[in-house]
Every structure is written in C-alpha cells, then in structure tokens.
Amino acid sequence: MPPWPRRSAARSAACSDAGPEGSRRLARSVRTFLESLRLQELATWCIRERAASPRQRSDMARYLITGGAGFIGSSIAEALLMRGDSVVILDDFSSGRRENLEGLPGSWELIEGSILDPAVVSRAMKGVRVVFHEGAIPSVARSVENPQATMAAGVQGTTVVLDVARHAGVRRVVFAASSAAYGNTPTLPKVETMEARPLSPYAASKLTGEHLMRVFSLLYGLETLSLRYFNVFGPRQDPKSEYAAVIPNFIMCAIAGKRPSVFGDGEQTRDFCYIDNTVRANLLAADSSRKLEGQVVNVACGERTSLNQLLKYIAELTGGGQAPEYLPARAGDVRDSLADIRAARELIGYEPTVDIREGLKRTYESLKARG
User: What is the pLDDT of residue 14?
Assistant: First the structure.
C-alpha cells in the first residue's frame, strides 16, 4: 500500500525592506501553496488507493465523524472527502476548531451540537453507514481538573452515539480509544491483552468506551472496533491551547526562541504516531471486510522516543532551540509507552508509513508556514 501523501514545503525569501505587511502576505502565499500541493498529492494517493483496493462499499458512502472539527476528526474528514465520500461532521466546538474545516473539499455537512443530545445525534446519523467516534474532551490534564465533564462526554456521550447508531441502522462504529488505558504497567511493548490500569478520568472514560463498544456489538449486532491511539501528532493540532500536545508546543517554542517546559526529567518515552498513520488506520477499519465485534487494536509506529530525544530532533529541524525548563511530573501522566501493533496488522492490515522524523519535518513545515 503506498504511503499517505507528504505535505510539501515551499522555500521563499522576503526582501529585507518588505516590512510586516509584506511578511504577512508572504506567509499567506506560502500557506496557500503548501495547501494546494498537499491536496494534489492527497488526491493522487486516493485515486491510486481506490484502483488498487476496491472497498466493500457503494460510491459516495455517507460517514459521520463526531468531534469532526478536532485535529484527528477533521483529518479523517479530509481523507474521506478526497476519495469521493459524503461526510457529516458533528461538533460542539468545545475543543474543535472551525479553522480545521476551512478548505475541506467535496460534499460535507456540519451539524453543531453535543454528542450528549440524542436528538442532535439522531439528526446527524440519518443515512450514515459508518461512524468515526472521535468526540471527547481530549486531555488528561483537563480530566484531572474536571472529571465530571470528561466522564459525561466520554461515557454518556459514547452511549448516546452507540444507541442512536443501532436504531439508525448504522453498520459500523470505529472508536477513538487511547493508550492511556494501559497506565504505568512496566511491561513494554503494550499488548491489547494486558491488564488495563488507567491513571486519569480521561483514561477511565476511554476504557469504558471500549467496553461499551463490545457490549453493543454483543447485544445488538452493531459492528464496532476500538483503535487505541498512541500520541498522535500533526499539523492541525492547536499549539496555542493551554493543553497543547507536546510536539506542537515544543516546535512553536523552538520557532519563537522560547524555553519549552518538560514535566518530569524528560526521559519518559512515547510512541509518537503521525496523523496520516492514524487516518489510514481509521479508513482501513471502516473498509475492512472482516467482522468487527468490539476488538481493540493499538495504532502507533512501534518505536519509542524520549522527550529529551524529541527536543534534539526538533533542534535539528529548526537549527536551534532553548534548553528546556524541567518541572515536576504531572498527575495522571504515564511514564513510558510503546505499542505492539501486530493485532492491527492482522485484523485490518495496518502498517505505519510515516516515521517520527518525517512526521516532525512535515509538522514543522506546516506550523512554520502558519506563523
């Protein structure tokens, strides 16, 4: 299977006397150029993929993405639209961003509302064949601060989505689970059969979501699959958020010449997974001819990187960077993470195609162009 298309970068130089307005015009031009190249490459990839792997679906299938204005949800939407599908995006914009939806091609509909509202979810679910359930409050730190909100969205919201899906005749629900479910179990790599030991309300809500997927498959025959994401990163992540993920945070600090903050000693490790790998896993799950009955599979790259090593990689990309400020470790954070991805390979044919170094390069180019 060919790799997910690369996001190309343009190199431009501004005249020294262009001034602030000239710099802004240059940045806008670079962003437009990058986006046009990326969409051309994505379209080419989708055409090749359609010809090489006919899917078990009719053309212009209709998909629902809960949390579709978020980083991962909007990336899935773009991939579906580029291959000619119809997409419904459901989001209440509590964490999703409207700018993630700008420039999406093809046939899509936005429904603004909460997954906690059965009437809204029912309206979004009409005519839908497959649901990508990405909706959640996506932060360990926020869940520690406000566990009730996290559990309401993650548990009750997931129950609403599944219950409406079974009544609406949806064929399959693909769930955004999390590697946070493993907790701090010392064994590496993490295998899906290991005992789950969640350390935060966020992790507990995601683990409960996995159980709900199995129950609805067992009781009602609704096909479900839980994809345990491992530290997904990429261009659409919000680097300005108070809860920004570590990679966009580190990159923006390097660009701005600021000291990044590291919680702990920096030797904690993560299995960082570039967004295009995660998107491919979701499409493979949606299109699989296999019977999906609530299984759980890891989605990652199968390699681990410490935060200190990550900072070195970013310094190489940016040509510099300030020494980090080491702060006390945060409650609920996991020490080490590394995925065994054999189950995903065997069940849906998943293979990562973009490693961390290439993913960092693409993310850096995108964030730099955005300014």
Answer: 30
Between the alpha carbon of residue 131 and those of residues 17, 68, 166, 225, 351, the distances in Å are 52, 11, 11, 11, 22
pTM for the full predicted model = 0.84
Cβ neighbours of 73 (radius 10 Å)? 27
For residues 348 and 291, what is the distance between their CA atoms, to the nearest angstrom?
Answer: 10
Of the options 3.40.50.720, 1.20.1250.20, 3.90.550.10, 3.40.50.2300, the CATH number for the domain spanning 55-231+274-302+339-353: 3.40.50.720
Predicted confidence (pLDDT) per residue in 241-293, tens digit: 766 689 999 999 999 999 999 999 999 999 999 999 999 999 999 999 999 99
At 288, list the tokens: 């699989």
Instruction: Please give the residue that has the higher pLDDT: either 30 or 195.
Output: 195
**182 given a catalytic annotation:** no
25 vs 368 pLDDT, higher one: 368
pLDDT confidence bin for 108, thresholds 50/70/90: very high
With a cut of 80, say whether residue 41 has pLDDT above it: no
Question: For residue 216, which amino acid is it?
Answer: F
| Active-site residue (options: 63, 202, 313, 364) | 202
Q: Which residue(s) pair with 112 in the sheet?
A: 91
User: What distance in Å separates the CA atoms of residue 275 and residue 301, rounded to the nearest whole number?
Assistant: 11
Tell me: the pLDDT tens digits for 110-165?
999 999 999 999 999 999 999 999 999 999 999 999 999 999 999 999 999 999 99
